[in-house]
Q: What sequence folds into this?
């Protein structure tokens, strides 16, 4: 809009002009890269979200051109709007780095760290956050809080023990469904996401709470324990859906569709909400028109070596025969069992080159 | 004896009822304000008086009133914060219980000044019997034409509603109070926007403490300048102090902020000294969330000057050697009290009362409680003390609302001033279970370097 004045804001010494009313976090996201603070509870598509997890704290070293005083405390960048001439320090401020590391520690304090059995592992924002901003080890020596599992109906599993209370699912349910049936019960570190009392979540768009959950607290019952996300190939696909846009990401292995999620942008946020039919009921490739592979931008486990290009993967330049001095490779595929190899009268070191089944079988003749 | 403005008539027989209160000169300020003063004049008068918010933060009340937005066609609200849940503070209860009409009178004047036609009293759930007293007072005021439509024929309408809370400390935080008043979960809102711009139901709202609103009555009756003459410096008027702990005469006292802390504790007019001939060890001068001070720093500042019962003097020296006036919950600890146990008990309170919205407070308060319990039970390690210090420093200032600060300050101050007692709990674990650390040097005179 032309009538909104542009404010100049400097984040980590990078200046940018953004319309008045933009938050510091969104200005930093426009710059991108490491300048963008992490956000566990803020979700740009959900009104009122943010301000709770405190991972996006930044230091405002200069309030504005008019009032250059620095802000006395670190501020939540997701809920603080920029002022003209504001100077913000994110990763350049030791105070912020220190505070953020402690927030990660706080968030992990009561988190079960059951990543090996958690369906969210690999695309978990808390994993990413702890790798990028946390310290190794914990100083917590007490029992972690646990909850009994709540049954939320046939599609969604709530695993409250893993929850970091970001309130995203509450906002999502509030804003997507006409009658929210789940919310926060209790208070403090014993507060929990729950329905009152033991109701099903059955709104047609309620499946989106799984996508907005930054951790593995809300998981897809049709996908639970079926596969690890990094083994699956994300494919963009669409269908003609009467309820939603029908634009989704399919997570395939071979021809089998393991799960369907909404498409997520580079900040892990859903681009368009999808309905329960698309998410839970259409698990055949024939239901969908496949557009092509989905690029996963985030530096999480699922993107390693798959589609994101050269992240951590370098191709060797030498050819195989150059390394092997001209000898042809032999295939080892026709060794059928360990016992065939494990024969005392064959000295493996005396065999020239890689062993082949012929080396073993010749003795039996 | 200092001057009393609020509690002067508190013990007149039947002052709880309208007739007696009116006979004793009550509701004069309503007549004066509504008939002879404009809204801006009242705000100006309160600004002149220098009245500071009595809820704990000490923010100038007149300035707060000046901030309220006045968009056309949008109703404004005044909310009285009677959710007095701070451990050690019970001054508002006393005021509402004994002289409820004083609060109603102050509320009518303040409602007129702010243009609030629907005014609320948010009272904590534990004060189960007080809403009845207040509602009776409201009904009496209404029957006599001081509330309702067209008050005293001036054309100003005002209704006061009493809203009972459900027993959460956090609802004393003004934005959480507003959320709770709206019928939602009492989670503090993220500021800005401040309530003066967008408060209850998105309308401009002012939230004031009971005592602040009661103090409006003498300000209107006698004028802001007269009010400002009482007290000293920026601590004007009188202050209610609720004293408790190891003292001979616990109770609510109205002081004019010129007396010294020593006089307040030991004079027979106030606390009456410490029972059983014990000595003073420490004191929390302003309600559980302000830093605890050892006896020597309580009676004298680090510079060796006498410490007085007012905002400036109590916070002299910052948090390193000072404390805060807070909400006036004066808790005295004698030499038999254990600081570690006391700190644990406070930490337990804050863990229980944290709303659980933001992570540092939700997780940090629970962690502090567990570490303190371990220390108290004699199972702690020396490194726990540094751990506690680190946890509290990571909570403070990183939370949405001041509950995080309130939870970390007592722990920080206890370690700052009583570190040797914490260490003794680790090194003499078995002994600590049966015997108190005692006074050590806490009551020694301060050596002031020349």
A:
């Amino acid at each position: 809009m032309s009538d909104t004045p542009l404010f100049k804001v400097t984040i980590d010494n990078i200046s940018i002009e953004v319309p008045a009313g933009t938050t510091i976090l969104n200005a930093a996201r426009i710059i991108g890269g490491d300048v963008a603070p992490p956000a566990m509870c803020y979700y740009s598509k959900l009104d009122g979200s943010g301000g709770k997890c405190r991972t996006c704290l930044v230091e405002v070293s200069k309030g504005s051109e008019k009032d250059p005083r620095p802000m006395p405390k670190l501020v939540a960048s997701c809920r603080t709007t920029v002022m003209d001439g504001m100077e913000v320090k994110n990763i350049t401020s030791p105070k912020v780095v220190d505070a953020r590391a402690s927030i990660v520690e706080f968030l992990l304090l009561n988190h079960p760290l059951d990543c090996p059995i958690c369906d969210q592992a690999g695309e978990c924002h808390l994993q990413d956050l702890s790798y990028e901003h946390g310290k190794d080890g914990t100083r917590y020596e007490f029992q972690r809080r646990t909850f009994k599992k709540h049954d939320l109906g046939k599609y969604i599993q709530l695993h409250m023990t893993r929850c970091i209370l970001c309130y995203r699912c509450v906002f999502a349910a509030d804003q997507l469904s006409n009658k929210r049936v789940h919310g926060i019960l209790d208070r403090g570190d014993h507060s929990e996401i729950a329905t009152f009392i033991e109701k099903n979540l059955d709104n047609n768009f309620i499946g989106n709470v799984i996508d907005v959950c930054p951790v593995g607290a809300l998981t897809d019952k049709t996908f639970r324990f079926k596969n690890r996300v990094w083994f699956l190939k994300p494919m963009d696909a669409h269908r003609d859906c009467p309820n939603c846009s029908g634009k989704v990401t399919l997570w395939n292995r071979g021809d089998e569709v393991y799960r369907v999620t909404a498409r997520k942008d580079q900040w892990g946020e859903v681009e368009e909400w999808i309905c329960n039919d698309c998410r839970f009921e259409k698990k055949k490739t024939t239901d969908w028109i496949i557009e092509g592979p989905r690029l996963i931008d985030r530096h999480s486990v699922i993107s390693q070596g798959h589609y994101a290009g050269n992240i951590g993967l370098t191709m060797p330049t030498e050819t195989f025969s150059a390394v092997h001095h001209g000898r042809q490779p032999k295939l080892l595929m026709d060794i059928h069992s360990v016992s065939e190899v494990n024969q005392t009268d064959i000295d493996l070191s005396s065999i020239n080159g890689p062993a082949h089944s012929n080396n073993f079988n010749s003795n039996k003749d | 004896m200092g001057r009393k403005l609020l509690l002067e008539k508190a013990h007149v027989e039947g002052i709880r009822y309208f007739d007696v209160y009116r006979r004793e000169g009550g509701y004069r300020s309503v007549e004066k304000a509504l008939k002879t003063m404009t809204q801006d004049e009242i705000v100006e008068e309160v600004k002149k008086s220098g009245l500071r918010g009595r809820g704990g933060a000490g923010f100038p009340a007149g300035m707060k009133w000046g901030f309220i937005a006045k968009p056309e066609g949008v109703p404004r609200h005044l909310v009285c914060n009677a959710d007095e849940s701070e451990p050690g503070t019970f001054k508002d209860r006393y005021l509402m219980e004994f002289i409820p009409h004083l609060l109603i009178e102050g509320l009518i004047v303040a409602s007129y000044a702010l243009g609030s036609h629907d005014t609320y009293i948010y009272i904590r759930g534990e004060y189960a019997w007080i809403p009845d007293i207040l509602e009776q007072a409201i009904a009496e005021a209404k029957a006599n034409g001081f509330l309702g439509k067209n008050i005293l024929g001036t054309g100003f309408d005002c209704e006061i509603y009493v809203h009972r809370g459900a027993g959460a400390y956090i609802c004393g935080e003004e934005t959480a109070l507003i959320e709770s008043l709206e019928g939602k979960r009492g989670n503090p809102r993220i500021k800005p926007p401040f309530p003066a711009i967008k408060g209850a139901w998105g309308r401009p709202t002012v939230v004031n403490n009971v005592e602040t609103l009661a103090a409006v009555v003498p300000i209107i009756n006698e004028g802001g300048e007269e009010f400002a003459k009482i007290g000293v410096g920026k601590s004007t008027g009188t202050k209610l102090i609720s004293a408790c702990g190891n003292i001979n005469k616990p109770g609510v006292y109205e002081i004019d902020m010129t007396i010294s802390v020593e006089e307040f504790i030991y004079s027979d007019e106030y606390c009456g000294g410490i029972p059983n001939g014990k000595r003073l060890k420490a004191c929390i001068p302003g309600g559980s969330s302000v830093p605890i001070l050892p006896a020597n720093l309580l009676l004298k500042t680090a510079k060796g000057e006498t410490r007085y019962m007012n905002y400036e003097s109590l916070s002299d020296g910052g948090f390193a050697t000072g404390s805060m006036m807070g909400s006036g919950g004066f808790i005295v600890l004698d030499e038999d009290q254990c600081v570690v146990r006391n700190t644990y008990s406070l930490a337990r309170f804050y863990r229980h009362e944290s709303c659980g919205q933001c992570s540092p407070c939700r997780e940090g308060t629970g962690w502090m409680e567990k570490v303190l319990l371990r220390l108290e039970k004699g199972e702690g390690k020396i490194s726990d003390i540094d751990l506690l210090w680190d946890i509290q420093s990571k909570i403070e200032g990183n939370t949405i609302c001041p509950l995080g600060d309130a939870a970390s300050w007592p722990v920080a101050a206890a370690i700052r001033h009583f570190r040797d007692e914490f260490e003794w709990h680790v090194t003499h674990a078995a002994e600590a279970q049966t015997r108190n650390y005692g006074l050590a040097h806490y009551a020694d005179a301060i050596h002031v370097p020349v």
